[in-house]
Amino acid sequence: MSTFQFLLEGLAAAMLPMNLLYALVGVTLGTMVGVLPGIGPATTVALLLPVTYQLDATGSLIMFAGIYYGGMYGGSTTSILLNTPGESASIVTALEGNKMARAGRGGPALATAAIGSFVAGLIATLALAFVAPFIVKIALVFGPREYFALMVLAFITVSSAFGDSTLRGLTSLFIGLALSLVGIDQLTGQNRLSFGVPDLLDGIEVTTMAVAMFAIGETLYIAAQGATAPDKIEAVKGSVWMTGQDWARSWKAWLRGTLIGFPIGAMPAGGAEIGTFLSYATEKKLSKHPEEFGKGAIEGVAGPEAANNASAAGTLVPLLTLGLPTSATAAIMLAGFQQYGLQPGPLLFATNPQLVWGLIASLLIANLMLLVLNLPLVGLWVRLLTIPKPWLYAGILLFATLGTIGANPSVFELGMLLLFGLIAYGMRVFGYPIAPVIVGLILGPLAEQQLRRALAISQGDVTVLFTSPIAAGLLIVAALALIVPLILRARGRGDVLNQMAASED
Amino acid sequence: MKHFILASILAGAMALPAYAADYSIMAPAAPGGGWDQTARSLQTALQKEKISNRVQVMNVPGAGGTIGIAQFASQQKGNPNALMVGGYVMVGAILTNKSPVTLKDVTPIARLTGEYEAIVVPASSEIKTIGDLVAKLKENPGAVSWGGGSAGGTDHIATGLIAKAAGVDPTKINYIAFSGGGEALAAILGSQVTAGISSFGEFESQIKAGSLRLLAVSSEQRIQGVDAPTLKESKLDVVIQNWRMVAAAPGISAEQKAAILADFEKLEKSATWQETMKTKGWADTYLAGPAFEEQLAKDIASTETILKDIGLVK
């Protein structure tokens, strides 16, 4: 049978009413657990996987796909509405999404996230079906030095999210980098900056930090303003739905986000966050409305959300073609597949075509179901913002705490949540941007480890960092991204750039 | 709002302590890993075989299980219903992290399963046998980069033992730690490192597909159906398995310990557990009672020696 026939057969099986119901249940459960801040898709899938064991192979695959996509999407809802990213991949979504929500444009933000997720999920799942074997060959060429070059590129492009003051942005970034050093060093197993506290041995959890920085810091900031704070947020200004202009500004961002997210997700050490960072930076560079960035630009939601979902499908490329679980979620999926007698690996497409195509068809169906479930809910979600402020922020505090405790039942973790919340409050008061802290915390260890691995393999020979064509190419792009704006500025076009840079608060 | 309420109930349920359960099993790791899978498989099997009415699993992730074991030893003291999953990785982690709580502070019950280590090279490599690899290692230890799991873990320890057995200074090995088997496997497949070392199961499908060449395995005897010599046959006196065990709380009485042991004897013989091990690809290396305690003491002593030799523990 040809590839296409298998896919059609899988789709036909997934379209049975009972299976559609499983997909709906899966998506609903996934979204419900996924909205809890601090609980990302990995934990969601791990918690809900046993639910699927009771079903037959097809049913459980479908429900599983639903949980996966639901969990992915749930995180972005809270990012946009409540500024509390449920997981590290939706941190960027919070940057623009929450600004939009507070300007009464929460509806379009949620809609562009949902449709962008759908578009990206659709394209990426089809890409998974048809080009996975090629993509994986490219992904394997990436070794430590290529990853290091990619991290350098990410650091430089992401610095556009640093706000109007480079000094303050860099200060925030270095706070993040310093915090990222805490814990057991991956390469030698030695403790760093843990001061004998066992809870610090595993370092600082990115989600705890993100929830503290965004949700707790924000709540404290609002509370401290007291009665002087601006009046109630206008929940809906204009249409709840996306306008023609919103569509026009979103569709290219969706496609670009997919293009960036999918290959990076397919790389064994890529990860979803880097795709969202790069997508955000790209959209900001290419936007016709750069001045809106930092105040709620719809591209800044559309692109990263698409990148996030595309990279989720990208993660399945090495998983299905090589049996490589490259993220926590993928590792849990691997366990799930084994439950269905499916052994991911290089022979999977040959030995188990029905199940593979069944899974891909399930992902397509789950993706569609997510859209069906969430678009009508947009109106309902947005009404969350009409809740009087004291209640709303009390609720945010409650859910932020619950999510953190749910992910890791430890008093110490709660203490960290509060401490970083206080720090975030201070940073807000003194006008330091929050996002670079998280960027440093995520990218710092990746860059450090890959650099050290590359140098260990080469036994200390620094030239290896430039001798690989891919690494060299990425470093050249990074250098251009750094130098070109300087030249432009020197030639008197600085105003435009200043304006571009001033758009983040 | 309905979602939020439901979700909060769910979160609440997760945070609830495990009352009214016959056994509560702590997995000292995040959901999804080997210990978590062991704990959840035990849960299913114990309930299905009616050895226990209701079993709860809780995760206390962190630092190779040392956070979990510390919490387990202090909070569950004398509780005959509390169990904890653990394994060989914990032995190394306790030493490298200088954990104040060790396996002496819990009551080991039985070793349940194990996975043997496999040494592989990419199919395109010029290295054909374990002998070739050892020759290269002797020539220049730094030029042989080994890709494997976390620093101080089973893979790292096995690499150190191989070097030592080959007469090479273990401090000279060029071990590249990757987070998780997947990332290491990608580096091996992409020929980024000279050789790879990890649990056999991690490499199995790649070996079958011909993209990796299996040089040797770390078992006592050859593994059935696997075409590779043991390290021992290759004149490297190394036998190591990444085992997983179950332990009970400290301070329980001899009768309570005997009761738990009896339950696990029953489990080991049950069809459900045998089937679970088969589907998961875990080797049955069941060892209980005094025999296990003796083996455990040996493992701890040899691990401490090799970690000192590698230079990870001072």
TrEMBL record, chain A:
The superkingdom of the source organism is: Bacteria
All copies of the DUF112 domain together span 20-438
Q: Which UniProt keywords apply?
A: Membrane, Transmembrane, Transmembrane helix
Pfam families (UniProt xref): TctA
The record lists the membrane-crossing segments as 20-49, 61-82, 109-135, 147-163, 169-187, 316-335, 355-379, 391-411, 417-443, 464-488
The answer to whether UniProt assigns keyword Iron to this entry is no
Q: Which InterPro entries match?
A: DUF112_TM
Write down the PANTHER family for this protein, in alphabetical order: TRICARBOXYLIC TRANSPORT PROTEIN
Protein name listed in UniProt: Tripartite tricarboxylate transporter permease
Q: Which organism is it from?
A: Rhizobium deserti
Automatic annotation (TrEMBL), chain B:
Name the source's superkingdom.
Bacteria
Q: Which Pfam families match?
A: TctC
Q: What SUPFAM superfamilies does the record point to?
A: Periplasmic binding protein-like II (SSF53850)
Annotated keywords: Signal
Which N-terminal stretch is annotated as signal sequence? 1-20
Tell me if Signal is a UniProt keyword of this record.
yes
Q: What family is this protein classified in?
A: Belongs to the UPF0065 (bug) family.
Q: What is this protein called?
A: Tripartite tricarboxylate transporter substrate binding protein
- Origin organism is Rhizobium deserti
